[in-house]
Amino acid sequence: MAASGLLALLDDIAALLDDIALMTRVATKKTAGVIGDDLALNADQVTGMRADRELPVVWAVAKGALLNKVILVPLALLISATVPRAITPLLMIGGLFLCYEGFHKVWEKLTTPKAQAAAERAARLQALADGTVDMVAHEKEKVKGAIRTDFILSAEIVVIALGTMTAAPIGQQVAALAAVGIGVTVLVYGLVAVLVKLDDLGLRLHRGEPSAVRRGLGTVLLRGTPLLMKGLSIAGTAAMFMVGGGIVVHGVPAIDQVVHGAVAAIAADGTLGFTILKTLADALVGVLAGGIISGALGLVQKLRGTPAPQPESA
After folding, report:
1. Is residue 246 part of a domain?
2. Which residues of 63-89 are buried (b: 16+ CB within 10 A; e: fewer)?
3. How many H helices and E strands in the chain?
4. Is the dihedral angle over the CA atoms 212, 215, 219, 224 positive or is it negative?
5. In angstroms, rounded to a whole number, what is the distance separating the alpha carbons of residues 206 and 242?
6. How large is the greatest C-alpha to C-alpha distance in the chain, in angstroms?
7. Does residue 260 belong to any structural domain of this protein?
8. Structural domain containing residue 119
9. Residue 223 lies in a domain
10. What is the pLDDT of residues 192-251, one digit of tens each?
11. What Å distances lie between residue 5 and 138, 203, 276, CA to CA?
């Protein structure tokens, strides 16, 4: 009897862990776009740091990111337990914010003259090379900005993840959200740490032993790292539109019906073509939503005679 009870207990624990793992996988899949954006933004936050200070800065931001999750997970669970109807509106607000943030980034990129962008970059590099610059203050400001950005994106991740498990028992929700929060933080900042040191690795290989293979690999890393960072930034922005637009589409039944009907008229539901077209349609909705919000905010600020608000990640 005792043995069978122990086996039953172990089976229950295994089933519970399997449920938690399943919810974690579903939640992580749902939040993949935001994670991509989180990675791109935080890799960009440490760009321009001196080489010996890059990893300490990444670690400082990672600790702040974990603290963000410690704050956000209980808060999200409290809202889910006391006002569950607030989850969908919060998701919508978060989705709209992602659309606005993505649109602002693209618009700023398109409207900023190349000469001005180059001049601003040169000024930043010159300041970093200046021995009189207070690097401690500079790093603290970078870390604060990155943690604020992480808080916004972490809120998105937690709320989206919670939206996939609202019917689960509270214990499983806590475990799954904790797993998502810790896993996302380790994944994002682990990859950021690797990315910011790729060029240093390339330089070391290039200057190392006179081996054609080592020098060639070093050259590839030196030339490829900036392209990788740029590609990551583009992918992160695209993900903002896809995730934000998808939340808006699913949150507004009328829009969902129109989008689903338009895509179904081109490709059969359930096929790869349908999935691709649906994702592109969600992204288009995200772009339109971001443009509308950006234009409305700009008009309001213009009428009030105050500068338009800037997203943290801009």
Report:
1. no
2. ebbbebbeebbeebbebbeeeeeebee
3. 10, 0
4. positive
5. 39
6. 79
7. no
8. 2-239
9. yes
10. 778 777 777 777 777 766 677 777 887 787 778 777 777 777 777 787 788 889 889 988
11. 60, 61, 49
